Amino acid sequence: MGSMYRASKTLKSSRQSFSLLFNSIKPNRRDPLRVGLQQAYGFSSDSKQKEPAVDLTQFPSDKIRNFSIIAHIDHGKSTLADRLMELTGTIKKGHGQPQYLDKLQVERERGITVKAQTATMFYENKVKDQEASGFLLNLIDTPGHVDFSYEVSRSLSACQGALLVVDAAQGVQAQTVANFYLAFEANLTIVPVINKIDQPTADPDRVKAQLKSMFDLDTDEVLLVSAKTGLGLEHVLPAVIERIPPPPGISDSPLRMLLFDSFFNEYKGVVCYVSVVDGMLRKGDKVSFAATGQSYEVLDVGIMHPELTSTGMLLTGQVGYIVTGMRTTKEARIGDTIYRTKTTVEPLPGFKPVRHMVFSGVYPADGSDFEALTHAIEKLTCNDASVSVAKETSAALGMGFRCGFLGLLHMDVFHQRLEQEYGTQVISTIPTVPYTFEYSDGSKLQVQNPAALPSNPKYRVTASWEPTVIATIILPSEYVGALDILLNGQAVDALATIVHNQKAYRVGKELVEKLKNFIERQMFEVMIQAAIGSKIIARDTISAMRKNVLAKCYGGDITRKKKLLEKQKEGKKRMKRVGSVDIPHEAFQQILKVS
Ligand SMILES: Nc1nc2c(ncn2[C@@H]2O[C@H](COP(=O)(O)OP(=O)(O)OP(=O)(O)O)[C@@H](O)[C@H]2O)c(=O)[nH]1
């Protein structure tokens, strides 16, 4: 094996080999935007097959850590990835292009990540008095916007841990929660990182408390950093190495790899991003894809460092790419298991199927360009497996496709990528959600295109459904009024309601008024209050029925009359304090119906 690598021939000790390895890896100076998108993905027409630059045999599983960077949008994932790549010499410091891994034009123009990107880094970890030890770290930078969460969940499948990045001023946000649960459900070790501590409005203590109360994360384990200034960054990679477990695969088991992403390259065909779960792979090996049953020879294999770098092999636990000469994108099914041909392996679980939220028609702006659009969509969906595509024809627009997306931003980005990366001008129809119609014969029809709804069906439509969301809304308590209704100071739980702060006063006032109409007068005064916490926001009173205690008191003994009235008042006070207010069942129904 050593004979395959120039570097490894001269190795004397592992310490020496590590520094040799470092010297053999030059920071990549290419500017992906300048050299164009195809090259940014790694290959160009004049790119010759390079000698393997890295000897991966020095990195058995226990020297590997695979982790994602996850966060809410704009909390600084890509900037942190930049700093970590600089720290490890993977890219040159001040390479002049912030958010290096955001390579697509659409990402640069919009300032958001839409594609997860992997970078392999080499890092020498020094623990106190021990000798420094070399590690191979695979970092996956993920998008923050909810429309691209499929990218996040796929990336997590190639990792054992995640850096959960939170903005020190904004604190925990919606996608922090969603991404935390994605990582948690995938059983990953979570390393909490509070970023942007350089901001004047940063409040790391508040954010730490949020991380503790919402996710039960240990506040002592939270790293405080500024990806902008570099403050605290030296603690990140040692924490990754100490806390995140190495990949669990078995090196002497038959090869099993997970295909977790892919893209189409004009010169090489389909390039597959893989994570090696068990066994090892070398260039020239024959591999089969479980879902398609197709077999190929591995023509090139390597790592993303951060551009594609041939290594001639991939070992258990490593993340990299393979080229097999696959020409059609349909052959690469994301989530597929790749194994050595003529061996039998248990397929990996793959990914949950995508649920498309919006559908729209995509047609060539010039009707005659249908073929060009077909090719462009085929290639782009190779790099974005979350889009569904089905051919359709419109009387007005000719031949086109009905595409399913995860959201409106996803749809917009897809159109922009078709235009920018493949020069295809498209017309897209008004986006719609999928509807289900039930007919009088009991049959059901799912309609993703308004034009596909039969205008004169044989059977009557008896019911129609549109998608509904059962949602849990998590928001800071100051935005919610927990509106209690109190009768004589006692909360009536059945009437408590959660409303938006802005509506709380109106709703409280209305409920109090209605209660006044529906509750009958009691022997004592009834105070009706609407409250948010301890604050009373609306109030009214139902006066007491008055028993004529003076009825039998003839004559004009004013002192006795006063005494009787005082006694009555005292009794009512006591009743008001201890007595329960009688709300008839029907009154409840009426109040709730009206409210
Ligand atoms: N002040 C300050 N700004 C930062 C820091 N880290 C990142 N930023 C800025 O925050 C903005 C967003 O940073 P990105 O790295 O693109 O954030 P992201 O999480 O990758 O964004 P998405 O991938 O689109 O979700 C940029 O303007 C960064 O310059 C930091 O530590 N301090």
- What is the 3D form? globular
DSSP summary: helix tally: 15
Helix fraction bin? 25-40%
Distance between the termini: 77 Å
Judged by helices, strands and strand pairing, the structural class is alpha+beta
Low-confidence segments, ≥5 residues, pLDDT <50? Answer: 1-51
Oligomer: single chain
Strand content: 25-35%
Strand segment count? 28
The biggest sheet amounts to: 8 strands, antiparallel
Catalytic activity: GTP + H2O = GDP + phosphate + H(+)
Binding site for GTP: 71-78, 141-145, 195-198
Domain Tr-type G: 62-248
Enzyme class: hydrolase
Provide the descriptors you would attach to this structure in a database record:
single chain; six-stranded mixed β-sheet; 595 residues; nucleotide-binding; binds guanosine-5'-triphosphate; alpha+beta
Structure description:
The protein has 595 residues and is of the alpha+beta class. It contains 15 helices and 28 strands. An 8-stranded antiparallel β-sheet has the order 11-10-16-7-8-15-12-13, covered by helices on one side. Strands 2-3-1-4-5-6 form a 6-stranded mixed β-sheet, sandwiched between helices. Strand 12 and strand 13 (308-310) form a beta hairpin. Helix 11 (370-383) packs across helix 12 (408-422) and helix 13 packs antiparallel against helix 15 (585-594). The longest helix has 21 residues, at 558-578. The radius of gyration is 33 Å and the shape is globular. 38% of the residues are buried. The structure holds guanosine-5'-triphosphate. It is an enzyme of class 3 (hydrolase). Belongs to the GTP-binding elongation factor family. LepA subfamily.
